[in-house]
Design brief:
By secondary structure, this protein is mainly alpha-helical. The protein has 2 domains: 51 residues, no CATH class; 83 residues. The chain is built from 7 helices and no strands. It is rod-shaped.
Length: 154
């Protein structure tokens, strides 16, 4: 007598686990036969398990891709906040850039900063705004990360 097919992924995983608990099959043919005797279609089981595993991994907080995506999105929001609140006068932008680079001279070695800073007088207001937003963001990030450098665990 065939059992009714599992209706949830949890039920499917449990049923497959029960099948292989007693004696592990040695060949794919044995696996297929065990699944068929249990009323399960081996192709459907494989597809459902693969889909379930993929979906679970995609939404898992342990999945580094998801964490990295969330971190990028969060950083972009913070970056845009800095960019949004900028003063628009070029002279003020230049003064703020110089002030940050005086406080944090290591930021001056970044490629984007070096590219703009050596021709600061000829840089457009939009580029100055972008550069200032980037420097403010990086300065804030370095202040947040500074305690971690002292030997604290993450």
């Amino acid at each position: 007598m065939k059992r009714k097919p599992p209706s949830t992924e949890a039920e499917l995983v449990e049923r497959v686990g029960e099948l292989f608990e007693a004696v592990l099959p040695e060949t794919e043919a044995e696996e297929t036969e065990i699944l068929r005797r249990a009323g399960l279609d081996p192709e459907a089981v494989g597809s459902r398990l693969a889909k379930f595993a993929s979906e679970t991994l995609a939404h898992s907080p342990l999945n580094w891709r998801e964490r990295a995506k969330a971190e990028r999105e969060k950083a972009l929001v913070h970056f845009e906040e800095y960019r949004h609140g900028l003063i628009r006068a070029a002279s003020d932008l230049k003064a703020q850039i110089t002030d940050i680079l005086t406080r944090q001279p290591d930021l001056g070695s970044l490629p984007t900063v070096r590219a703009h800073f050596h021709k600061l007088e000829k840089t457009s207001s939009n580029d100055l705004e972008s550069l200032l937003a980037e420097l403010q963001f990086l300065e804030a990030q370095s202040q947040v990360q500074a305690p971690k450098k002292g030997g604290e665990k993450e």
